[in-house]
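Need a sequence for this fold. Nothing fancy.
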């Protein structure tokens, strides 16, 4: 059973993308425990486009509902919105990449500060102030933000809506809108809030838990290599792996990912070009994927390991365990 609000949230992704949403797929195919490949006669789309209907929705390899919506000017993309739990309050935040209205001010001590006139609105709350946290590099914010190279990109950011009240009683939270006073910049995010937990009470822990945030993968052809990689980290004490999947793998690799998903050892994030609204085809993704993973696993595990598919972390000592 699905509420009208859930269906409306489905449409908020945009009419051109309603079919490639994991949530939307489930809404129009009730009764399936997870997305399954539909028969040729059972494809559902709001468009009568036979060529488009032949494509399998990216939702079929996706376990997480990301937003991936672009701003009105097209210069910024919101990867998702999150709830960050603190000791005394919870903060709604947006992870994104691109250009937003902001300015840099250098203090007398040489430290830079970031200012923006972008505001946060949601439900009955309107135009609460936003705070922008940028990724820091080896040069100034101003140099990095406006001058990017093929190897470096410093436009990944967190936008914090610290004055926006989070109502824990709501089953589904209203869309979040970020906008500038003149309306030239505007973006609305309607996806579910990604969230971890609050800080651990470490005195109560009896065992330590490790999660692996795997860097974006694409074009894998050797299923054996993937199996060896996942089994190595499982044997080394990893409880779960978040896989940021750009696609382009062999059928055998996709089947391996499906198998490990069925065992609840991995969570698949569909970051293909189509599912990400074109974002992952051109951008440096390491910081974005690592931040997304951090915000989702914070408080659920004691340690998080960040590594790429071609990196093996050596197990120290005779224990055979990373922790």
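Here you go.
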């Amino acid at each position: 059973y699905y509420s009208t609000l859930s269906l409306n949230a489905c449409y908020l992704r945009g009419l051109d993308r309603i079919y490639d949403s994991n949530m939307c797929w489930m809404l129009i195919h009730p009764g399936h425990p997870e997305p399954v490949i539909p028969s040729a006669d059972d494809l559902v789309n709001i468009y009568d486009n036979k060529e488009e209907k032949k494509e399998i929705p990216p939702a079929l390899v996706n376990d997480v509902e990301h937003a991936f919506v672009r701003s009105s000017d097209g210069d910024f993309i919101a990867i998702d919105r999150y709830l960050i739990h603190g000791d005394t309050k919870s903060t709604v935040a947006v992870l994104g990449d691109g250009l937003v209205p902001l300015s840099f001010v250098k203090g007398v001590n040489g430290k830079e500060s970031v200012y923006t006139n972008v505001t946060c609105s949601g439900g009955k709350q309107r135009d609460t102030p936003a705070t922008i946290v940028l990724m820091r590099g080896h040069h100034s914010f101003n140099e990095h933000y406006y001058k990017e190279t093929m190897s470096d990109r410093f436009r990944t950011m967190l936008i914090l809506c610290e004055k926006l009240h989070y109502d824990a009683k709501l089953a589904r939270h209203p869309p979040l809108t970020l906008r500038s006073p003149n309306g030239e910049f505007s973006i609305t995010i309607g996806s579910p809030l990604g969230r971890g937990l609050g800080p651990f009470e470490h005195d109560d822990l009896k065992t330590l838990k490790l999660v692996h945030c795997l860097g974006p993968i694409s074009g894998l052809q050797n299923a054996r290599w993937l199996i060896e990689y996942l089994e190595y980290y499982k044997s080394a004490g990893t409880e779960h792996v978040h896989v940021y999947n750009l696609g382009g793998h062999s059928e055998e690799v996709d089947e391996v990912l499906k198998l490990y998903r069925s065992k609840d050892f991995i969570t698949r994030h569909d970051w293909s070009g189509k599912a990400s609204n074109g974002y992952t085809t051109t951008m440096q993704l390491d910081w974005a994927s690592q931040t997304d993973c951090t915000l989702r696993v914070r408080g659920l595990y004691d340690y998080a390991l960040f590594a790429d598919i071609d990196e093996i972390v050596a197990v120290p000592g005779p224990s055979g365990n990373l922790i």
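For context: Residues 223-235 form the longest helix (13 residues).
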